[in-house]
């Protein structure tokens, strides 16, 4: 692989408690937050450069929107959008490719990517086969269907889950078994609970609130993607995606302090800053305080 470093090598760095920050590059016309902003080649390359400069450990590149109701995008169209961007980014950083199409995964891994981000819960085991053949990492997200059939966050029924954490862990483990049956090694898997995917706001917020249980209950490293999603503001005044930075940082620091290994975000620099400050304050809170010197004011 031609990238500066692989996703596996990046994950090794989380053993000291550090969390990876994955920057999002949507090469799409219709993604929920920044659709169209990086669709042109020059703007996509500029986005990659900005993410790297901001400190992204990984750049996640996708050519198909995964918002609820978004149409499926043919593999050929995805490749037209992302392949040159993947080659460019792979010369500068670790690259993940957000796709459910084996053909797209094959070409992008050959072009230098080292990770596949699968939002379909391994609906097509051929995707896992491709990842295994290229010795790539495989982010396996929990979902119950494809985005074109997914209902909006407010429309998913409350009783669709019993205990949402237990249900998601069980269903994710079943999907992981499909991926492993396709030849993927256990150590290649990364777990994503799929916040907002086939879940309403209450489900997603409960998963985020109890993310430490997911970390303990999963045999794989855990990635959280809450950035700019509307469920974060379920009980607050609504705001467009670009105005959800504060909510996104709250979710990111909450997740980092509870043991997640990676965060998929739009705002890389701000996330690094917020997590670093939160970690330093937690360390300060538990560190012993030296007694004041005699006579000190």
Care to describe what's here?
The protein has one domain: Dihydropteroate synthase-like (TIM Barrel), CATH 3.20.20. α6 (164-181) links the parallel β5 and β6. The radius of gyration is 19 Å and the shape is globular. It is α/β, with parallel strands linked by helices and 297 residues long. The longest helix is centred in the C-terminal third of the chain and has 19 residues, at 268-286. It contains ten helices and eight strands. Mean pLDDT is 90; it is low at 288-292. The termini are far apart. α2 (41-53) packs across α3 (75-90) and α9 (245-257) crosses α10. The protein has an eight-stranded parallel beta sheet with strand order 6-5-4-3-2-1-8-7. The chain has helices at residues 7-12, 41-53, 75-90, 102-110, 125-133, 164-181, 201-209, 211-217, 245-257, 268-286; strands at residues 20-26, 58-62, 94-98, 115-118, 137-141, 189-192, 223-224, 262-265.
Structural descriptors:
297 residues; 10 helices; alpha/beta; 8 strands; TIM Barrel
Write a concise synopsis of the structure shown:
The chain is of the alpha/beta class.
Query: What is the oligomer described by this structure?
Result: single chain
* Count of extended strands: 8
Percent of residues in helices: 40-55%
What's the CATH C level?
Alpha Beta
Tally of structural domains: 1
Q: H/E series, N to C? A: HEHEHEHEHEHEHHEHEH
Percent strand: 5-15%
Question: Structural class, judged by helices and strands?
Answer: alpha/beta
Based on Cα principal axes, name the global outline: globular
Describe the biggest sheet? Answer: 8 strands, parallel
Mean pLDDT: 90
Please identify, by name, the CATH architecture.
Alpha-Beta Barrel
> Number of DSSP helices?
10
What is the fold-level CATH name, i.e. the topology?
Answer: TIM Barrel
Distance between the termini: 60 Å
CATH superfamily: Dihydropteroate synthase-like
């Amino acid at each position: 692989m031609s990238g500066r470093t692989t996703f596996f090598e990046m994950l090794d760095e989380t053993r000291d408690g550090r969390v990876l920050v994955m920057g999002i590059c949507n090469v799409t016309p219709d993604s929920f937050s920044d659709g169209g902003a990086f669709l042109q080649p020059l703007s996509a390359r500029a986005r990659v450069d900005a993410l790297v400069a901001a400190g992204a450990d990984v750049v996640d590149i996708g050519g198909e929107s995964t918002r609820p109701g978004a149409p499926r995008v043919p593999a050929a169209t995805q490749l037209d959008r992302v392949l040159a961007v993947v080659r460019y980014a792979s010369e500068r950083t670790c690259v993940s490719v957000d796709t459910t199409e084996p053909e797209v995964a094959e070409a992008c891994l050959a072009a230098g990517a080292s990770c596949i981000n699968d939002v379909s819960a391994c609906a097509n085991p051929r995707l896992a086969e491709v990842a295994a053949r290229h010795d790539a990492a495989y982010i396996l997200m929990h979902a119950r269907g494809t985005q074109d059939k997914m209902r909006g966050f407010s429309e998913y029924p409350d009783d669709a889950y019993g205990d949402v954490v237990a249900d998601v862990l069980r269903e994710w483990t079943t999907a992981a078994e499909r991926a492993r049956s396709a030849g993927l090694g256990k150590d290649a898997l990364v777990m994503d609970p799929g916040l907002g995917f086939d879940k309403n706001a209450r489900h997603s917020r409960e998963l985020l609130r109890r993310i430490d249980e997911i970390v303990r209950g999963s045999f794989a490293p855990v990635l959280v993607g809450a950035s700019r999603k509307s469920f974060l503001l379920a009980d607050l005044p609504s705001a467009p995606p670009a105005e959800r930075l504060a909510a996104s940082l709250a979710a990111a620091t909450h997740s980092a302090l509870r043991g997640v290994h990676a965060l998929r975000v739009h705002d890389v620099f701000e996330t690094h800053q917020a997590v670093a400050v939160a970690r330093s304050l937690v360390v300060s809170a538990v560190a012993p305080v030296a007694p004041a010197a005699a006579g000190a004011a």
